[in-house]
Amino acid sequence: MKARAVRMHSQGAPEVLVLEEIEIAAPGAGQAQIRQTAVGLNFLDVYQRSGSYPIPMPATAGNEAAGVVEAVGPDVTNVKVGDRVVYQGGEMGAYADRRNVPAWRLVRIPDGVSEEAAAAVLLKGMTVEYLLERCVSLKSGDFALMYAAAGGVGLIAGQWAKAMGVKLIGVAGGADKCKLAREAGYHAVIDRNSEDIVARVKEITGGKGVPVAFDSVGKTTFDATIACLAPRGYFVSFGASSGKPPAVEAGLLQSKGSLYFTRPTLATYCAAPEDYTYSAKRAMEMLGSGAVKATIGRRYPLGEAAQAHRDLEAGKTSGSTILVP
Ligand SMILES: NC(=O)c1ccc[n+]([C@@H]2O[C@H](COP(=O)([O-])OP(=O)(O)OC[C@H]3O[C@@H](n4cnc5c(N)ncnc54)[C@H](OP(=O)(O)O)[C@@H]3O)[C@@H](O)[C@H]2O)c1
Asked: 172: CA distance to ligand 1 center in Å?
């Protein structure tokens, strides 16, 4: 069977993403074939396209999508034809209108939740789940800091933290993004274009600083993040939207007050199928219950994936971005 897929024959600028027709085999043992209706865009896709993460070429782009099961291979028992499902991770190849996926990665979409919303929230929601609930143990009343507060991960984090009672301080670029972050439930929001991040964090926390800082920006925010941490605080470096952060000196962690530094990934926190299923179900529960709402900033046709990448990389998007096959 034929499928339309966004392929890369080399890593590089957004133009390497090209829409092509490819051949799809019948699903093999343990696989299900999905007719995909919504593809989630993630910053990870940019790292894989640009070459920040080396990957073998050629490849089909993408790591997350939702749709309907159209066929199942032998030994598949967790889903059936007609089920509405969502998945993330594993082998790349989500930028397509149809593909085979290991069935264990598929999670049923709750009734009343659209496939678009599921694709907008799964990977980012699983990221928020492991960051807030497993990587560090935050409890009600704790302060924490989150950059890109109006981004895909950021808007979900604001809502999730509010549900936990965590006082999440957001950083976003510009008045419109700050408004979105405030509406998502952030305790306070700092405009990085017009305010001093460190001074504002100190002011909001009564001079103490935050016990946890989630930094996905990397190169340009490293120094501010270190300065925002309270003694014995956790620096959670989980992305590099502005480029890689500098190498971390043990002596710096010492002199800034016995700090901890970790560089976690969703892939490690969901490597075991039971952890993946737990985290995915948690993200879908939060969406199904209404505690987290999907904010889809923009939709692009599958063939305009290159433009979607340009906009995400330039910080022009807010909330989640969807490619429509
Ligand atoms: N480690 C993990 O497990 C994991 C999993 C998922 C995502 N992530 C990371 O989480 C981050 C957010 O991912 P996302 O897909 O939701 O993207 P996103 O937050 O929707 O987009 C990135 C945002 O980063 C901010 N930013 C600040 N400086 C930037 C710069 N120099 N260049 C580009 N953007 C800049 C921009 O927001 P402002 O203008 O408001 O600052 C921009 O909108 C990414 O770094 C991603 O790699 C990590």
From this structure: 10
* Measured CA distances, 129 to 85, 107, 118 (Å): 19, 16, 15
Return the residue matching tokens 């995909």: 36
262 residue type, one letter: T
Query: pTM for the full model?
Result: 0.98
Q: Which of helix, strand or coil describes residue 139?
A: coil
Q: Is the CB of 279 under 6 A from ligand 1?
A: no
User: Looking at residue 301, which CATH number applies to its domain?
Assistant: 3.90.180.10
Omega prior to 58 cis, within 30 of 0: yes
Domain membership of residue 70 as a residue range: 2-108+295-324
- Report the candidate in 138, 131, 125 with the shortest Cα–Cα distance to residue 86: 125
pLDDT digits (tens, 9 = 90+) for 121-177: 999 999 999 999 999 989 999 999 999 999 999 999 999 999 999 999 999 999 999
The closest residue, in CA terms, to atom 42 on ligand 1 is: 315
Q: How far apart are CA 235 and CA 210, in angstroms?
A: 10
